[in-house]
Specification:
heterodimer, A: mainly beta, 6-stranded mixed β-sheet, 5-stranded antiparallel β-sheet, globular, B: 115 residues, mainly beta, 7-stranded mixed β-sheet, 4-stranded antiparallel β-sheet, 11 strands
């Protein structure tokens, strides 16, 4: 079983749609969770951290369920500029290295 | 530009040749990471430095790979006797002491093609 698994993509949605990405992680000792965004042929960039209570940043909402070892990202009112690959990322306690999922590609069309 | 920089951005080499990549982290970031990314995959961790000390190496890092960060600033990643399977994007990232490695800032990467 892979350490971080994400929905296979791509997701094709029209502008204005709501889209949700799911992610599961295998190591219950994982302590920190993130979503990174990676544009085509560019480097990954931190989109948002994910907290146990859930957190929101504008149109983006992240949720964490530690019991199920499940992370989600919801994008509301999607824009053309949201087209990118979304990477689910986990950091184990006591380690500084990040473990990435394969990513889920989002394509927003007019 | 005060972000992470990497050099070269692209490298094409023949199988069996040695290559060396350089990474300049954000100044005052004491942590530096190397990752490898192939098409359709997320970045995979290779190695990690805190200042000049190499604290962790992935099992992905075979004997042909070596990384250094001699003065705790820039880092180099060398691949000896390159193989076609080494073709990938090599990403460098850095993070400040205060973040515990949680937020990492990535450079643009070096794309290696081994013919």
């Amino acid at each position: 079983r892979k350490e971080v698994e994400q929905d296979p993509g791509p997701f094709n949605v029209p502008e204005g749609a709501t889209v949700a990405f799911n992610c599961t992680y295998s190591n219950s000792a994982s302590q920190s969770f993130f979503w990174y965004r990676q544009d085509c042929r560019k480097e990954p960039k931190l989109l948002m951290s994910v907290y146990s209570s859930g957190n929101e940043d504008g149109r983006f909402t992240a949720q964490l369920n530690r019991a199920s070892q499940y992370i989600s990202l919801l994008i509301r009112d999607s824009k053309l500029s949201d087209s990118a690959t979304y990477l689910c990322v986990v950091n184990l306690s006591g380690y500084s290295t990040l473990t990435f999922g394969k990513g889920t590609m989002l394509l927003v069309s007019p | 530009d005060t972000g992470v920089s990497q050099d070269p951005r692209h490298k094409i080499t023949k199988r069996g040749q040695n290559v060396t990549f350089r990474c300049d982290p954000i100044s005052e970031h004491n942590r530096l990471y190397w990752y490898r990314q192939t098409l359709g995959q997320g970045p995979e961790f290779l190695t990690y430095f805190q200042n000049e000390a190499q604290l962790e190496k992935s099992r992905l890092l075979s004997d042909r790979f070596s990384a250094e960060r001699p003065k705790g600033s820039f880092s180099t990643l060398e691949i000896q006797r390159t193989e076609q399977g080494d073709s990938a994007m090599y990403l460098c990232a850095s993070s400040p002491r205060t973040s515990g490695g949680n937020e990492q800032f990535f450079g643009p990467g070096t794309r290696l093609t081994v013919l």
